[in-house]
Amino acid sequence: MSTGSTAAWLRRVVLGVPYLWLAVFFLLPFLIVLKISLAEAIIAMPPYSAVVEWAGDRLRFTATLENFAFLLSDRLYGIAYLNSLRVAAVATFCALVIGYPMAYAIARAPAELRSVLLMLVVVPSWTSFLIRVYAWIGLLAGNGHINNLLTGLGLVAEPLQLLRTDFAVYVGIVYTYLPFMVLPLYTSIARLDWSLAEAALDLGATPWQCFRRVILPLTRGGILAGCLLVFIPATGEFVIPELLGGADTLMIGKVLWQEFFNNRDWPIASAVAIVLLTLLLVPIALFYRYQMPGSSSAAAGLLGAAAGGEARR
Amino acid sequence: MSRRWQWLVLAGGLSFLWLPIVVLMVYSFNESRLVTVWAGFSTRWYGELFRDRQLIEAAWLSLRVAVLSASSALVLGTMAAVALTRYGPFRGRAVFGALLTAPLVMPEIITGLSLLLLFVALSPFVARGMLTLWIAHTTFATAYVTVVVATRLAEFDRTLEEAALDLGATPFRTFRDVTLPVIAPALLSAWLLAFTLSIDDLVISSFVTGPGASTLPIVIFSSVRLGVSPKVNALATLLVLAIVLGAVASWLAMRRASTRYRAVVVAGPK
């Protein structure tokens, strides 16, 4: 075999193997979810009717939109979707308000400190997600650390109900997703051309004007990336509302889980997933559209910065 | 923002990130069964932890799945990263890129459900358990590996590879002798990242696993649902320590390698 054909063969393998893997284990499963969302629930294993069947001489399609009609008719689902979007949006906003000053401060810190500070932000996100949510149970519980502190100081007479509330869910989301907000923000702030800010200040802008009219617009890419990296997964979050939220904290991730594991209604669970994906289509498309070129996507910024430990300009 | 404000903000943010973890770790040494009331120093929960057979078995399963899937994700992700950064435009590149990034943003609950439905459809051939855990973890970890390795490949000085090719090295040899040594630290961090993602995963694993194959997060989750327990604190402390040590080690390796790379490639050989 000549080297030329070996090279072509190698190229095909290098591209083909991961492509095939993702097609089979990522793309194909979504098509199956779509298919099952059009099926009927039956008592069997697997518990759904066939959508495409070989009826002796031809293929027979028996798709139904009943699952989607059911999602529309039962208000519970609508409320759960709206509630998830609202909780994710509020938590994303809080994470931005906390994360932006942090990212700004790291970007302005002395160069030799920056990589250490970044590590301090990233490492918690590498420790177990479940453990970090669990940590807040101990903090927020009725006999937890925060209530002990508050009653100990005499600030409140009775322990506050903190755990099993929407507030706890917000805290949980902001806490676990904050690093995903800070890193893309940091990447975009560190790339900023500071002479523009200096020019604005020299020309008489107040620091606030300079921030609002110069720095904020220039870091829009990082803001968008950070917000999407928090908002998209937070909308489908299951663990946080399950462990920190109350019985009345209705979020769609929890609903999907219950439909699947408790009610064993696979078609409805699939329909819930399809609608959730449709709702997230716009944010996901935005995420792809605005992936920063070069050290590219926000995720790359996140992991690259984390792995490299320093800003690349 | 003035200097002082910046430091204040940073100190506040970092304590928000670290205090809950530190409190959790401190209370793993608490004598009392009540997690939140201090009753003296004790290591008894660590003893109980190591006597809990269910937890040990789950940890062992998680460890095996994590090593396997991090390794396979490293191979797949590195191939994908090479294809993305070195092959120029090819047909289906946009779809390929989208497929590679999708697991980074997709809500886990959707990925988990869809993979399980695939495995059910394949059920005569695929037994749910360690095999399906391995496939699922490899799939999402590949996305992260690709991003880390592609970032490193993108900033890599391509003239070195071109020189090797011009001097008659085969593409494989060029990769092995030129590219691999330079991206090795990135490969190490990518592997560690894939490993931590795998060992940490709860939602996707809950969907795809079969009877008898409970990973560590699945066991922790079912115990945490019933309330806090000092044993979980002890376990968490060990996990956090392992991850912090791993992170610091890979960071140091990365830094040393990047200094060396700069010294040799940027400044030129002595």
Report what the structure shows:
The complex is a heterodimer of chains A (313) and B (270). In chain A, helix 8 runs antiparallel to helix 9 and helix 12 (252-262) runs antiparallel to helix 13. The two termini of chain A are 45 Å apart. Chain A has 313 residues and is mostly helical. Chain A has a two-stranded antiparallel sheet. In chain A, strand 1 (52-54) and strand 2 (59-61) form a beta hairpin. Chain A has helices at residues 3-37, 66-73, 75-108, 111-126, 129-140, 145-152, 166-190, 194-202, 207-218, 220-235, 239-244, 252-262, 266-289, 298-308, and strands at 52-54, 59-61. Chain A has a single domain, classed as Orthogonal Bundle (MetI-like fold). With 270 residues, chain B is mainly alpha-helical. Helices cover 77% and strands 0% of the residues of chain B. The two termini of chain B are 45 Å apart. The model of chain B has no long low-confidence stretch (mean pLDDT 88). At the A-B interface, helix 1, helix 3, helix 4, helix 5 and helix 7 of A face helix 1, helix 3, helix 4, helix 5 and helix 6 of B.
List keywords for this structure.
heterodimer, A: 313 residues, mainly alpha, MetI-like fold, two-stranded antiparallel sheet, 14 helices, B: 270 residues, 2 domains, 77% helix, 0% strand, globular
